[in-house]
Amino acid sequence: MNHMSQGRRFSSAARGQQRVVWTAAALVLAAGHVAVAQTSGSQSSDSNTLQSVQAVQQQVSQPGPSVTPTAGTSDPSYRGSIVREQATNTVLALSIDDAIQRGLRNNLGLVLQSSSEKESSGKRLQQLQTLLPTVDLSAKYQVQQINLAAYGLKFPGVNPIIGPFQLFDFRASLTQNLVNLPALENYISSKHNFQSAQLTAQDARDLVVLTVGNAYLLCIADQARIEAVKAQLATAQISLDQANANHEAGTAPRLDVLRAQVDHKNEEQQLISTRNSFEKDKLALARAIGLPLDQQYTLSDTAPYQALNTPDPDAAFQQALSHRKDLAAAAENYKAAESSRKAAVYEQLPSAQASADYGDIGTTPGHSHSTYTATGTISSPVLQIARMRGDQQVANASKDQAAAKYSDAVQQVNADVRDSILDIQTAAKLVDAAKSNVDLAQEALSEAQQRYKVGVSDSLPVSQALTQYEQANDQYISALYQHNVAKLALARALGVAATNSKDYLGGK
């Protein structure tokens, strides 16, 4: 499942931080009504309690901002992997650490980045060769016969056919650039590109942790939903049994039974849908970590709520500047573009080259003599103004683009850090609000069931309270998921996801 579909599934959690303050106030108001109801025991207070819970339920029906991570996840390769093992008949107990380690070994995004690093290393060596001596060895054996007449050479009494004769030639040649500033700058540029590829591959590890961690947390949320729906199904069964009993006793109409049956069937459908989502998200997790899709496994870790002391945004930004590998890679790209610009400028300068040739030549190896040549060459471009100016303009444009990308990358890191901190703080408040909402909805459901049992009201408040309780549970699970993913996103924003993700997921 891609992150777009995850965003749709958690779209109920994506509307804004401004809801937190008045949601908390509404919860306090509802809690006050609950206390009044418990003290007076009056039916009007009970009704007010239910209405307050309903109001709170509507207010937190969309519990907060989406914190589904987006950094790096637009590349679909991070959702794929290389499968290096066969499925077994045993059920694998998979922890989040195991999943992350498997992702760091098998995730396709990291594999591709490692290949790009090797490619950049090869290009660097290619550029280096232009600065190093080039030595070639050759051994030649030649048999030749010449027709002088074919060249217009005719001598009376002389046979124009010469040969056949043989020739042995053993030779070594050397070429060395003595002064070639464009080649030097191109090599320096390739070094920076290689360092950028190395840093990008290191940054890919953070993206793998972010992708795998998010997929694992999503499966945990699905699993929690399954348990919640099972509990709600059991509650719906109790209401159905109670409605049947009241109808048989003649104290409730058939409508109450039908309403309870609808609630029960709705919970059954919800359970089927939730289990399907869970299995599909498990497949998505397996795809990201290189686990065979037919391998059975269970999640051995849970993600309970753990508060995190969020750092100061300015201090966190400074930390991110020194740890974010993608930012360092952008800086190396700028340096590479600067060297390419210098190489384009130096194209108008003369270059010097030395070459030498030494060998042994003769009709036979025993009848041969050494020969050699040595050459020094100075060359300078003439009447190539258009090409050189064009190269300079291209290089300057590349440098300007690299500078702009680096500047934007710095601001993006700053935004990532501040967004993650805001998401953690908001999600923590949402967890508290949603937990209180679950308690209120559960109490409202219990009171509605008791009122129906003693015949004070019909089954409609029970059905409504059951729906609200289900929504409250779903919102609480969503808030927990948001909080944990926000902590993981902060680790990535700081550039420490691959090394310190456990500290952020576990809380500090």
What does this entry look like structurally?
There is one protein chain. 65% of the residues lie in helices and 13% in strands. With 508 residues, it is an alpha+beta fold. It folds into two domains: 366 residues, Outer membrane efflux proteins (OEP) (Up-down Bundle); 72 residues. The strands form two sheets. A four-stranded antiparallel sheet has the order 2-3-5-6, with no helix packed on it. A two-stranded parallel ribbon has the order 1-4. Strand 5 and strand 6 form a beta hairpin. The longest helix is centred in the C-terminal third of the chain and has 69 residues. The protein is elongated, with a radius of gyration of 38 Å. The relative contact order is 0.16.
Count of runs of 4 or more consecutive helical residues: 12
What is the overall pLDDT average?
84
**Residue share in β-strands:** 5-15%
Number of domains: 2
Radius of gyration computed on alpha carbons: 38 Å
Can you count the beta strands? 6
Shape: elongated
- SSE series: HHHEHHEEHHEHHEEHHH
Low-confidence stretches: 1-72
Assign the CATH class of the largest domain. Mainly Alpha
Query: Mind describing the biggest β-sheet?
Result: 4 strands, antiparallel
Structural class based on helices, strands and sheet pairing: alpha+beta
CATH topology of the largest domain: Outer membrane efflux proteins (OEP)
Strand order of the largest sheet: 2-3-5-6
CATH architecture of the largest domain: Up-down Bundle
CATH superfamily of the largest domain: Outer membrane efflux proteins (OEP)
Distance between the termini: 31 Å
DSSP helix fraction:
55-70%
